Structure formats: structure tokens, C-alpha cells
TrEMBL record:
Keyword Translocase listed: no
Species whose genome carries this gene: Lacrimispora celerecrescens
PANTHER family per record: 3-OXOACYL-[ACYL-CARRIER-PROTEIN] REDUCTASE FABG, SHORT-CHAIN DEHYDROGENASES/REDUCTASES FAMILY MEMBER
Name assigned to this protein: D-mannonate oxidoreductase
Domain of life: Bacteria
Amino acid sequence: MSLSFGTDLSGKVAVVTGAGGVLCGMFAKTLAEAGAKVAVLDLNESAAEGIAASINEAGYKAKAYKANVLERASLEEVHAKVLAELGPCDILINGAGGNNARANTDKEYFEMGDIEADTKSFFDLDQSGVEFVFNLNFLGTLLPCQIFAKDMIGREGCSILNISSMNAFTPLTKIPAYSGAKAAISNFTQWLAVHFSKVGIRVNAIAPGFFVTAQNVKLLFNEDGSPTPRTNKILSATPMGRFGEAEELNGALLFLLNHAAAGFITGVVLPIDGGFSAYSGV
Ligand code: NAD
């Protein structure tokens, strides 16, 4: 029996949405280093081009595509180009996602007097903000699966990886829409895993815990570098007592995509969280 350490994705085509961003840009680079030809999809064309250029400069293979995960026509157009330029999709990473301030409450708890106070309470949440967050995360995962997974039917070693979150297991305060949308992604991951189980497509998700990235650093650290109150709460609820390093997601990414190592794994949502989701707080 050979042990399946190391993930060789030579000959595979990986489509990564949101790949102009922090985490999925890194995933795109990791997949390319593992040998895949990577389609770098993002609404932000210049961000996608920057990631693809850095991959190609390093001697690996990538191509940037402007794509909107919320528009079927945009995805179909990109799918046709990927098919012609790189080949059929073997791996789909649904990374495009995120939150929006219009769907957040200002405070963790609703208190007497908040309706009159100058604070955005639950009662002030903006419907269009909630719809934006649900659509971006949930529909923005479902539609790319509809477009790209058709390439995978009946072919060996194909899989889909969705990006859920800690807030899918237990909602985080202030962000009801993002928490609900990520819970929907975890649920959909299981649904699609079952649905595709007879045609050779594995469907899994990772649920990252807390990682300091460009877009959340201001929430987590003050200008002088000291931790914010939210950082103290996060770290005291993380048994390992630290934030994750983005690179610590790569092992799970490669493992779940490695058919030799994870060929019997489908429908899981793997937390990568320093123990956050296992800890009751007591
Ligand atoms: P990011 O904001 O750096 O990247 C998201 C990318 O998605 C951006 O490049 C953006 O242009 C793109 N995008 C937005 N709308 C799009 C659309 N309609 N079509 C195509 N592309 C679109 O975010 P990130 O931190 O790298 O997060 C990536 C994924 O990981 C997201 O799904 C996020 O919810 C999830 N996540 C992040 C963390 C974290 O700590 N950063 C934790 C848990 C889960």
C-alpha cells in the first residue's frame, strides 16, 4: 500500500472564484504549485490578473477571467473560455463571498432604549444588505456549481470545495446574514455531496476560524497594534490562543482535493480553527 502524502494536480484544471482576494488568491497559487492549470475568476479583473501574473511569473500556469458569480451569463461565458483555453474543470473552489456592513447590527445585544438610540439595531437591518450577503455567499456558490460541475460528471477525481465559516456552526454576534448564509453553504455542501455521490464528484467545505487578513485587520487591531476587544474575545474562545496563519488552510485544501487521500470523503465541513468550534467557553 502506498501512502498518499503529497498532492499532485498535474493535468487538472482548477477553477477558483474570488481568486483575486486574500485567501483564494493564495489557494490559486497553491493549486498551481501542485501542478494544476488554474482559472483565476474574480469580479475584480485587475485583482484576478495580478494573481494570475504572479503564478505565471513563478513558472506555473494560470489565466485570469473576469466573472460575476451572481450572473449565469457571465459564468457561462467564462466557462466556454476556460474550456477552450485550459480544458474541462476538474476542481471548483467556490471562494467568492463576504459580508456587508448593511447587514450587521452595531451591538452584540439588543438593550432597552436601543430603538430610540442612534445605533443600528436588528430592527434597522437593511433588506437589500441582507439579500446582498445571502446572494453573494449562497447563490454565488450554487451557480458556479451548476455551470462548472457539468464538466466533472463521470470523470475521475473531480471535486468541489466550498468555503464555509465558524459562524455556520454557531452564529457570531452582529452578523446575522453572513452567519445564516455560511450555514446555508455548509448545508448545501452536504446536499450536493449526496446529490452528486453517484457520478464521481466529491463536495466538501472548509470552515476557517479566525485569520488576520487585510480586510479584517482594522477590526482586530488598533492603530497602535494593540488588540481590540473583539480580538480578546476571539482569542479567549480559541483554545490554541492565537489567530490562524492563512497558509494553515493549505493542508486541508490539498488533502480534500487529493483523490488518493480523501477519495471516500464527501459532504464534510472541516473546521480549521484552533479548536474554536469545539470549545464551549467553559
Ligand atoms: P476577500 O474579500 O479578500 O476575497 C473575496 C473576493 O471575492 C474578492 O476578490 C472579490 O472581488 C470577489 N468577489 C466579490 N463579489 C464577487 C462576485 N459577485 N463575483 C466574483 N467575485 C466576487 O475575502 P477572503 O478573506 O479571501 O475570503 C474568501 C472566502 O473565505 C469568502 O467566502 C469568505 O467569506 C471566506 N472566509 C474568510 C475568512 C477570513 O478570516 N478572511 C474566514 C472564514 C471564511
